Amino acid sequence: MNILPRISQLSPRVIHILGCNPGPFTLQGTNTYLIGTGKRRILLDTGDGQVPEYFDLLQSVLKEQQATLDHILVSHWHPDHVGGVEKIQQSINKDCKVSKFHIEDRPTEFEKLTDGQEVSVEGANLKVYHTPGHSTDHIILHLKEENSLFSGDCILGEGTAVFEDLYDYMNSLKTILGLNPSKIYPGHGPSIEDPIQRIEYYIHHRNERERQILEYLSSNHGNKMSAMDIVKGIYENLDSSLYLAAERNVELHLKKLEKEGKVKKLAILWSTI
Q1: DSSP-H helix ranges across the chain
Q2: Dist. CA 128–CA 117, nearest whole Å
Q3: How far is CA 56 from CA 39, 85, 162, 246, in A?
Q4: What is the pLDDT of residues 114-127, one digit of tens each?
Q5: Considering the entire predicted model, what is its pTM?
Q6: Quick one: how far is CA 42 from the chain centroid?
Q7: 183-186 β-sheet, strand order
Q8: How far is CA 236 from the centre of its chain?
Q9: What is the largest CA-CA distance in the chain?
């Protein structure tokens, strides 16, 4: 594991500030990024709002850069990305704009980001792409000057990402691949210097699991199976403590396959079509 410094200058226009909130789902902590080269900067994501050290780090970087915050962009609604907004507005810049992609069934007080929108400050032009799957409101940002990508929780610097909807998530990975980025700044973990290889690995990993599920269902054609039946059939030597997590994973794969017309569901049981 690469140990991330709390502050690091990743490029002439990107400074990484670690959220200082390590955990099983946040890895070493949530990555936040100060973007731009001028007096007014963009901050992507804000940590969870529970760690005073993070706000001290952010203030120290802004002071050193002789800069202030023009705009906070939020990659998605999860607390470890949005939780620090209020504290930053209170302690750093009460007039700082805050924007997030809107989902109709999840109201927010933030300004609305839209797919394809561009947000700019001196030295940085960012384009917003709606990339649902990890969450319905998830976005990534393409930094034109570098052809780099802020991937939020779509792609992580270590391991693989979790998702709510695999069908949407796979389409979002294809969107990211189509942008052909030269570098990825993820929501957690170290920066990714081989982005195409990493994206293709993510896609292959999910396609391989899907293939296993379909093959297992096909080999038992006529027998309706639960997600747990499939877990026990395709996950070799899996510790029983991980069964529920694996079952959730299989269910998400099955829902994607159902959308594609490859499997069907009756009550809680599944079969091929």
Answers
A1: 52-65, 79-82, 85-91, 166-179, 195-219, 227-234, 243-259
A2: 5
A3: 19, 14, 30, 39
A4: 999 999 999 999 99
A5: 0.92
A6: 18
A7: 118-121, 124-130, 139-143, 148-152, 183-186
A8: 28
A9: 68
